[in-house]
From TrEMBL:
GO BP annotations listed: methylation
GO terms assigned for molecular function: protein-lysine N-methyltransferase activity
Source lineage: Eukaryota, Sar, Stramenopiles, Ochrophyta, Eustigmatophyceae
One of the Pfam families matching this protein, by short name: N6-adenineMlase
Organism encoding this protein: Nannochloropsis salina CCMP1776
Protein name: Uncharacterized protein
């Protein structure tokens, strides 16, 4: 099995997947057959089969659900927090972590689905989640849907490559999509990447590891990964973070 990539340059195409607009490229009949096939495949498992050429390593269902629940804590109803049903209060951008969509469908009858936006290069997810999907390639990090600029309240990011250069491209997109705040601080970000980047991501993005939470995948990975947040996590509730609550964590 191929490990997650550790290198990659801006502009470099790291996969052989052509850019396809499936709806216009395929005949109605073929498209219908593809949809039928994907619907059948969905019954066999929550996600399309992993494509290691795209560094696809799916979370276990439990891990996907826990990360989703952490993202949704920012929408819990209550004093000083956003109304969970009002998407004008912001959306969740899921950048390259499509496994979060399946638990979102199961949770509370799918009521959170309308506020999720999935940014992903693999167009199979566009067939599966047409109302949520935006084709996204971090090599073209500024190519983003204009209607979503400034609309995202929470980010979940899981890049296919484990280096700072790739992460910077993701954060470039994040800055453009982020709902602006009066104090200039960044929205909550949950990032899954290499344990080896701990120092670098803390210095550059104000991210700290969620040490109490183990990120489990359905396949065995060659590189140890961990979840990071740029705020004290609420649902994942990491003990190490509690000591840092007074620290002013900002989007750098
Ligand atoms: C390490 S996996 C993260 C998946 C996550 N663990 C999950 O279970 O949903 C990397 C993700 O990046 C996507 N990806 C690969 N190349 C990409 C690119 N150039 N731009 C954006 N996303 C890409 C893959 O399709 C995959 O969903």
């Amino acid at each position: 099995m191929q490990a997650l990539g550790t290198s990659g340059r801006r502009g470099e195409k790291n996969c052989d997947v052509p850019k396809l607009d499936l709806e216009s490229e395929l005949s109605q009949h073929t498209m219908a057959m593809l949809k039928e096939h994907l619907a059948e495949a969905a019954l066999e498992g929550p996600e399309p089969k992993e494509n290691y050429g795209l560094a696809q390593f799916w979370y276990s269902p439990e891990t996907a659900k826990e990360i989703l629940l952490e993202a949704l804590t920012h929408f819990t109803t209550g004093a000083g927090t956003d109304d969970t049903t009002d998407i004008d209060n912001g959306l969740v951008a899921i950048l390259s972590a499509p496994s979060l969509m399946a638990p979102a469908q199961e949770l509370e009858g799918g009521k959170h689905l309308p506020k999720l936006r999935l940014f992903e290069i693999d167009e199979r997810f566009g067939v599966q989640w047409p109302d949520n999907f935006h084709r996204y390639d971090y090599n073209d990090a500024t190519v983003l849907p204009s209607e979503l600029l400034g609309k995202i309240a929470v980010f979940v990011i899981d890049p296919p490559r484990l280096n700072m250069e790739t992460l910077r491209e993701y954060f470039l997109s994040t800055r453009l999509l982020a709902r602006s705040k009066a104090d200039g601080s960044c929205p909550p970000c949950i990032v899954v990447t290499s344990t080896a980047l701990e120092e670098a991501v803390r210095g550059e993005f104000g991210l700290r590891p969620v040490k109490d939470f183990e990120v489990i995948h359905t396949s065995k990975l060659g590189n140890p990964l961990q979840a990071y947040t740029n705020y004290p996590p609420k649902h994942l509730n990491d003990a190490a973070w509690k000591d840092c609550q007074q620290e002013n964590v900002v989007f750098k």
